[in-house]
From TrEMBL:
Positions of the Cyclic nucleotide-binding domain: 245-364
Subunit structure: The potassium channel is composed of a homo- or heterotetrameric complex of pore-forming subunits.
Compartments it resides in: Membrane
PANTHER family: POTASSIUM CHANNEL AKT1, POTASSIUM CHANNEL KAT3
Domain KHA: 422-490
Region of interest: Disordered: 390-422
Record's comment describing the protein's domains: The segment S4 is probably the voltage-sensor and is characterized by a series of positively charged amino acids. The pore-forming region H5 is enclosed by the transmembrane segments S5 and S6 in the Shaker-type (1P/6TM) and contains the GYGD signature motif which seems to be involved in potassium selectivity.
Record keywords, A-Z: Ion channel, Ion transport, Membrane, Potassium, Potassium channel, Potassium transport, Transmembrane, Transmembrane helix, Transport, Voltage-gated channel
Compositionally skewed regions (Polar residues) per UniProt: 396-414
Protein name: Potassium channel
Family: Belongs to the potassium channel family. Plant (TC 1.A.1.4) subfamily.
Organism domain of life: Eukaryota
Amino acid sequence: MGFGIPISYVHRSIVHPGITSFSLGKCNVVKFSVSSTCSGYGGSGVSANFSLGWRRTLASATSGQDAANSYVTLFAVHIAGCFYYWLATHYRESDNTWIGVTMPDFKTRSVWLGYTYAMYWSIVTLTTTGYGDLHAVNTGEKVFSIFYMLFNIGLTAYLIGNMTNLIVHSSTRTFAMRDAIHEILRYASKNRLPEVLKEQMLAHITLKFKTAELQQEEVLQDLPKAIRTGIAQHLFRTIVKNSYLFEGVSEDFIVQLVPEMRAEYYPPKVDIVIQNEIATDFYIVVSGSVDVLTYNNGIEQILSKLESPAMFGEIGVMFNIPQPFTVRTKRLSQVVRISHNHFKQLVEPLIEDVKIIVSNFLQHLKGLKENELKEIPFVTDLLDETNVEAMESTEELQNSERPSQDTNRSNMVQTPAKLPKRVVLHGHHPDIKQKEDNGGKLAHLPDSMDDLLTLAEKKLGKQGTTILMADGSQVEDMNALRDNDHLYIF
């Protein structure tokens, strides 16, 4: 923003024609100062004529409240100096002015020399140094000096308050980080954690504070859902569409999937997925790189290296089995996490997208290295014989040219999507809490009630005849059960 006052018109109206045009130039300097300073200080009101490149340069050199303090100080010093010099040039006796006492011929000297003297006086007065070499002589200058020093009292309080706020804010974050690190070290020492885990915990805490402004959840939690969705689409839509698993899926699927993803940062040499843990999420690499590892007889072996837009953890989710690999970051990496439960709920009604996803997944499995395929636990306790036969049949049908190829393939690719449900088994009545329960036993839901009772006897070590839900209702139909239901068998 700027002040659109026609300075030349004001000059002709109030200045005697015999007075030098020097004052007009000084007024124009003041006009430029007010315009540019207010533009920089206003932020959102920057003139369209002000160079975007210069604004970015200034923004990179100064930031936030520091820039505002600088603008205010320079504005006050510049305007006070210009006005003080204007008083001297318009006083009837040049020798009886603050600058005339020191330099009688100042009107014939360079304008910038006078400007230098004025800025020197303004800064010395603002900082309350007051050397006394330049001082008010006539009444007008003394009155202006009085008001300027009163203004300086308020300006100094404003600047000190802002600087104190900046320092306290920065110190608060530093103290919070220091306390968090202290708690981590105390916890690790008390529980005698190995040095490797301690270093990973410290690296994670440090990275969390460094990337606090980039954390998606903290930034977006107060925004409306529509805005959050738009931001998520802008950030992660391309990376999701480029990942192999979602190649060729519908736009509706992408729109529903992206807002539910969570962005996370991991420092180097940190395990994101651990071998044989329950598959609750899978990930897409946005930036950085990760190593896929396995352990054979306690020996760590690197199987492959993944970079954007590769995926990991999806094998455990798709087959509903423990994760077959450990995935560890090589350097600072950003990944997006997709929940197993949300993914399953999302794909269930989208039959065509399920076919595409499963087809992409099967093609990916065929492209795995031999040492990677050996680590995937295709065993009967995790996948029933129907799923295994369906995958084998799908592979055979892809190399045949029978007329019924498309129909059979549709039937086959739907089969892996019908993954067994996971339930938590407890060996007591839901109203009775037992210390030895320890959260129950996680298992895949079999096809019949008899098989469920047999499985419960095997898992819990005691035979049961009654199956209840957490609310006390009795289970009579296996189809009514959902994923992650708690079943009480006694």
